[in-house]
Amino acid sequence: MHHHGYLWVGPKPRFDQEALRRPPHPEPPPAGSRPELVQRYREVAVEFPSCDLPPLETRHWLSKPPGQVRGTWPDARDASGWLRDRVTEYAPRFMSDIQRDALRPVALAASAEARLSSGGDVSLGYYLERPTFLSLALVACSSEDASPAPPCPML
Question: What is the pLDDT of residue 26?
Answer without folding.
Answer: 86
